[in-house]
Amino acid sequence: MKRRFSFPRPGITTKLFLAVLLVALAVLLAMGVAGRWSFGRGFIGYMDEIALARLDQSLPRFVQMYERQGSWDWLRGNRRAWFHMLAPREAEGPDRGAPLALRELPESDLTGALFRIGLVDAQQRFVMGNPHAAQEPQAQWRPIKLDELVVGWLVLAPFQSTSGTGVQRFFDEQLHATWIVGSIAALFAALVAWGLARGLVAPIKALAAATQRLAGGHYNERVDNPAHDEVGQLARDFNTLARTLEANERMRRDFMADVSHELRTPLAVLRGELEAMEDGVRPLNAEALLSLKAEVQTLTQLVNDLNELALADVGALVYRREALEVDEALAHSVAPLRDAYAQAGLALELDLAPGLWMEADAQRLGQLFRNLLQNSLRYTDRGGCLRIVARREGGEVCIDFMDSAPGAAPEVLPKLFERFFRGEGSRNRATGGSGLGLAICRSIVEAHGGRISAHDSPLGGVWVALRFSALDAR
Q1: Whole-model pTM?
Q2: What is the predicted pLDDT for the residue at 300?
Q3: CATH, domain range 230-313
Q4: What's the rounded mean pLDDT across residues 421-430?
Q5: Which residues of the chain form CATH 3.30.565.10?
Q6: Strands of 140-146's sheet, edge to edge?
Q7: What pLDDT, on the 0 to 100 scale, is given for residue 39?
Q8: pLDDT value for 466
Q9: Which among 48, 103, 116, 231 could disulfide-bond with 157, CB atoms 3.0 to 4.6 Å apart, if both were Cys?
Q10: Residues of CATH 1.10.287.130 domain(s) within the chain?
Q11: Contacts of 36 (CB under 8 A, 6+ apart)
């Protein structure tokens, strides 16, 4: 099979270079065409207009002389009389004024109008002047009338007919000069276009190469472009995107490692328990089944938390909002955990202002409160307390969970709501949860249009602050 040859497609540098060069050449071509048109229609037309004015100025003299002489015989071959008839005068009228000196000749004489005029009689037979004027197709004719009777014609030949060689030589010189200037301008335009194309395209090529490397998984790729134009802004946006992708990739790896770690621990316990029962080391009794059930519950809770966060990320969680009284919702969430707090030696202090209303999903809001209550229950030392304060400030409902020691380092507080984050070594498997509780809390708060933050508690522990839009009291 015969292979078809295909030309390589030009790059953006070549396209930009050709675009700028073609624009410059088009401008030069337009200037050349405009110059030629201006010369033909402007300069030559101006010459003809001057000569025509001279012709019209001389016409009354020919009428007067024909009326005096009765024929054109006196003018045939009489060059002196001819030039005298066409010579400009200081004033019009019969025999008034003398011919002007050469230094005072009008523009029509300086442009050769005197030699472009011819005289023919009524039968259009040559009398005097330019013998070829009447033969020119573009000649201007002026009748010489005596009592409405045409006795002759003054004919003005076009400028090109008498100065064709000189005009052509002048035009050729102008064209030659135009070609030289145009060639220099085209070369200069080509150099400027090439430099401009390379200057503009070089950072774009670097950005395209960096984009390919970024697409290949090199998220540490950066583009250095300090320019303050659109390309520089594009480079800065690229760097922002690269940093975001790098952070997301790091979070993805950490997330996978944390998930695998969290799943491995209960699975290892389950496997050990089952192997011990299989080998007869541990009897299959209610206590063993209770231990297995606890590990299964841990796995179930972890999977449910991961599923809930995944649904929150894609916006698939359904929130049915309604007007809720905050103190009542908090009381319902605290009641089931009072015994657990009492067994852990922790006090629960509630300072709830009445009449606090907000629009929320009752189930999700209860889940938020329970997660925060369980978090304090796990990580607060025995003998401490948890203080819950609910109040209204301006147009917001403020809910604060403040527990006692141990606290958290200042650099740890902003990270408490990240997935699987464990800021203290004491938060191990024995006391800690899955590391997803506070992340779920942040998801719920943000879904309600609120804010959640962590600070140092005045009681020595952690202060979790919740802020929601308030509704008017009902």
Answers
A1: 0.49
A2: 78
A3: 1.10.287.130
A4: 48
A5: 322-471
A6: 126-129, 117-121, 149-156, 140-146
A7: 61
A8: 95
A9: 116
A10: 230-313
A11: 171, 175
Numbers of helices and strands, H then E, in the chain? 11, 11
Residue 424's Cβ-count burial label (10 Å; 0-12, 13-18, 19+) is middle
User: Which amino acid would we find at residue 385?
Assistant: C
Tokens for 102? 């050469």
pLDDT in tens, 250-262: 777 766 776 776 6
| Class of domain 322-471 as given by CATH | alpha beta
What amino acid is encoded at 42 in this protein? G
Q: Amino acid letter at 263?
A: L
Q: How confident is the model at residue 398 (pLDDT cuts 50, 70, 90)?
A: very high
In Å, what is the CA distance from 433 to each residue of 131, 296, 391, 420, 444?
A: 120, 14, 30, 9, 18
d(CA 348, CA 437): 20
Half-sphere exposure at residue 51, Cβ-oriented, CA atoms within 13 angstroms: 27
The continuous run of DSSP H or E covering 156 comes out as strand 149-156
**Per-state percent for the chain, helix, strand, coil, to nearest 5:** 55, 15, 30
DSSP 111: T
385: three-class secondary structure by DSSP = strand
Residue 279 CA to residue 27 CA, distance in Å, equals: 96
Rounded to an integer, what distance in angstroms lies between the CA atom of residue 421 and that of residue 414?
11
Q: Which residue has the tokens 């301006």?
A: 394
Angle at 250 between CA 420 and CA 264, to 5 degrees: 40
Instruction: Indicate the length of the chain as a whole number.
Output: 474
H or E element that contains 322:
strand 322-325
- For 114-170, write each residue's pLDDT tens digit: 778 888 888 889 988 888 888 888 888 889 888 888 889 888 888 766 554 455 566
Q: pLDDT grade, residue 199 (50/70/90)?
A: confident
Cβ neighbours around 145 below 10 Å, total? 13
Cβ pair 207, 234 in contact under 8 A? yes
Tokens of 389: 């304060």
Position 351 scores a pLDDT of 93
Gap between the Cα atoms of 382 and 401, Å rounded: 17
